[in-house]
Amino acid sequence: xxxxxxxxxxxxxxxxxxxxxxxxxxxxxxxxxxxxxxxxxxxxxxxxxxxxxxxxxxxxxxxxxxxxxxxxxxxxxxxxxxxxxxxxxxxxxxxxxxxxxxxxxxxxxxxxxxxxxxxxx
Length: 121
Prior knowledge:
Distance between the termini: 34 Å
Low-confidence stretches: none
């Protein structure tokens, strides 16, 4: 079985939690009649599908960029549901921090010896 990288693991956690928020945000937009029902449900479903595609492609660099697109579109959803400006901005900040930290952790992991004797005493 393939070992997942740090970026893939952390990114899938962030996007997994965001899937719940996107689903609930879609329900809120639908309940508030923020736009016609077809547009709200279609837009929410499209954003959820995009997040799932990002999770499935996180092993490649394009997955990170698709994840960034999900974050930006979540912020843009604030046009219809104003609270999404805040929620989207929070998830964007979490995403940026997670991707930065994962990249740093992968660099550190790549520079350590494979045999586990990095700190002999």
